[in-house]
Amino acid sequence: MNLGSMLAFVRPDLDWHALAPELTLLAVGTLVTVADIALDDKAKRMMPTLAGIGLLVTLVPILTLAVDGAERPMFGGAYVVDDFSLVLKALFILVGYVVVLMSVDYVREGDYYENEYYTLLLTSLLGMVMMASSRDLVSVFVALELLSIPAYMLAAWRKGGPRSNEAGLKYYLMGVFASAVMLYGMSLVFGVAGDTDFGTIAAALTGEGASPIIIVAILFVLIGFAFKVSAVPFHTWAPDTYEGAPTPVTAFLSVASKAAGFVALLGLVFVAFEGAADVVQPFFWVLAAVTMTVGNLIALRQTNIVRMLAYSGVAQGGFMLAPFAVAFEDDAWQLPGTDITTTPYFAIVVYAVIYAFMNLGAFSVVLAVSRRTRSGDISSYGGLFSYAPGMAVLMTLFLAALAGIPPASGFFAKFVVFWALAGAGTPAGWVLAVIVAVNAVIAFGYYARVLQQMWFEPVPEMVALGVDSGGDDDEIDVAEAANSTAEQDEYGDAWLATETRQATMVRFTPGKIPMTGALAAALAITAIATLAFGVLPGLVSHFGEVATFHFGG
Amino acid sequence: MDATGFDAWALTLVVFLPAVGALVMMAVPRARELELKMIALGASLATLAVGVYLLFAFDYGNAGTLQFGVHKGWIDAINADYILGLDGLSLPLLILSMVIIPLCVIYSWEHIPEPGNAKALLILMLILASGMNGTFVAQDLILFFVFFEVVLLPMYFMIGVWGGENRRYASLKFFLFTLFGSALMIVSFVALYFVATNDAGAALNTFNMSELAAAAGGDLARGTQAIIFAGLFMGFGIKVPMFPFHTWLPDAHTEAPTVGSVILAAILLKLGTYGFVRIALPFLPEGAAAWAPWIGLLAVIGIIYGALGCLAQTDMKRLIAFSSVAHMGFVMLGIATLTPIGINAAVFGMVAHGIITGMLFFLAGSVKERYHTLEISRLGGLLKSAPRMGWILAISAMASLGLPGLAGFWGEFPAILSAYSPGAGLSEGTFRTYMVIAAVGTVFAAGYLLWLFQRSAFGEPKPEWEGHVIADVNRYEWAAWTPLIIAMVLFGWVPGLIFGVVDDVSTGIACSIGTAVVGDCPWTG
Question: Using CA atoms, how far apart are residues A4 and B253, in angstroms rounded to an integer?
């Protein structure tokens, strides 16, 4: 968008079909709010259903646009609906749908505000859906704020709990700080390029060399997004926010919000900063290597499952960042049978899709199990296989996927990262591939801790109340544990111990996990996707190819 | 090479029948144990039936080419296809795997280890069967990798859930060691895809194993080949396991339940050696030649180290585990010579070790069940208290130490022999030294096995067992063990049954290495 041309306002042509997904989402969000005001309390039970149906309806225009297949640029190229954006829009909507399924009982049983919750969720999704189409610094920023601000509020949704407040506040402060850094970087980029459009920026940066101003501009923009995708050393908000936020929100943040960050990075790096490979590639090489290594090492020390998944998410983010490090290397490697020449791009899209389902699945199991155990301690998973074998098998599937063990889907995600790194054919690419390989092994260490608990250990007699699972459960006998000090020694992890051991110890009776239809549906969707993408990776790689086509041709 | 009719489906059935059995079992409630066992047995026997068909339908005149081929698209984006095929190298190992699984199911009929749950144990066994069968017939690197990895989690759970005291440590160690190897292995696979060329220097860009084998490294520089080979070496060498990566093995074997040990020893270890022969050697001849002296060195260290380790053990199961390190050393020595005799010996050694060590672990399991201990010093007089079991132990120990007339001999002796004149321009002096060391290793092997047999079977039963009834071999054990005992004797007398099938493939591999490295293949008739 050239600022000069804005002086004389001309109403841009609107392609209503192209905007239909966004408008549908907006309409559903509004409907939820209005319905809450207009209808009585009973109707509130309908909110999640309404939100869920609304999300599924949103898929319809996405499908019709995909069938149509035309590339539809709008607003001077600042907003583009193409195959890439449609694949990711569909991903966000599906993730949103699963999160709604996960939220239904959690929000209701916890007696939290229902309609506001879903309205904010839908608004945040709207931001993500817009992010997928943004091809301009301004539209990227608007989409980013639109998706972030509702997320800050969602993180603090359990407003009675200090942890949740901490989660929201930390997320907010860090997020705003990141936005400020990013905005400053964007202003510098605008100063250099004279425009905010990705294509024009790319043209302006090409051949400029790495002048200090360009380095600073690009690094600030990228660091802003590094916060968003919780890359080390900008990850510090993530574990506290993830642990404190309501678990469905945590799942949402760790999957959708992170994916949105990657979507923005894809556009920025591959299009806008194409001319600045010398700055971008080394930055991502270091960022990816540090993120996966540090994330993994800290995850090894976690005793709380949500924190463990938070750090695992940091490490997974590192794997996803790795292909950026070879973004502009020799792209003569064509994907066979296609004209896709940008394997790193493909790898990141595929990883994001696979990661979304396996991670949502893991969080769904955490939610389900906590309905019985009321705890977030990894030790509370002891003996799960003996009293809830189905749940243990599902968790095993999701953890195997996260660890990258075939035939669960995650192995293919890791594989495409290797593929991209090796395809570059540079020493830097090879070294990073080996670092990824070693980290994949370290990661199994902490996933195995959960597997060991579920399969090998006896059912614990006492568990620490941790994860807030909503309403009361009469079957659980609350009692102060006299021997909590003894258990503390067992872990010998002082700073974590003080944090988790403050919780009340309660006697635990194993038994059938109280399931609900919505949660079961969430588990089914994620499990089927995780298994199907693993056995037939062609399914997911097809979408990866489609998303990458707009780039190559 | 694509087969038609039932032949086109045979290998797919072999791979997926066990998995289908496992799926069916998941739907059956845990309490209906007999039905569950019947399904597991049915699925594994049905797989074996297809295997028997393969044995008869296999064209032995063309053992060097892939038969029963299937080639379908799988992951187009990365050019990985669903390719299965069977040749003389795969056939013996596939049949071994298909025989061992039903025997394990039969053995489990009455021997479900603590903490019970036959359903889960049998399901894991069937998943293992699918993974192992798949590894032996996969002809696409990515497909191979998937099957290679599929076996990890079931074995991890088998050791971890049904294992002994130290099962958590042992299972995690097993998993992390193997995973580390396979992570580097997959990097090497991807590297092969991108850098492998044909002789003209054009990139192959394929995961198809027969194309990569046919290219035999193309015009890749020796240094590049050696680096990629190193990644494969880590992947396969840890699985074998080769010294110094063997440390997971004694722990895993000692802690694993009986059937877990049997499957681990009989088949899982073979995935590593099979990988060397199927992938590492033919794809990267120069790399193989560069590494062969070191592989040979590690192999003979493994032979001696494993033997010394055996002599230091007081636990019967741990002793057998260490003997595996030594036996796999012979297999690796055979492979390292890069000669047809060596590779033939290696494949024979794999099958023989699978049969014999599988049998020994069965015996250890049954001894443990009767005495509740495997401390060799507390056993004794087995020939008196349970004479049939004592004699079976005698035969198995003799077979294991390489007595001529039993299967073990044909794995060890030709491997030692082949080191006399290694192929591909390898140093004769070095390999003849290895030969001498390996020969000394056989003496050690006789030492520790006879020592084991003598202490556990000879003499009077120890006074502490007075009043205990030490039951002799029961009918389930007979059913599970008879085929293995027959095989031990049969292959001992008619080694040609295996050598004849493998020879075409191993000559082909040795020749392609010889041609690529020194431009000469002295073995073609």
Answer: 76
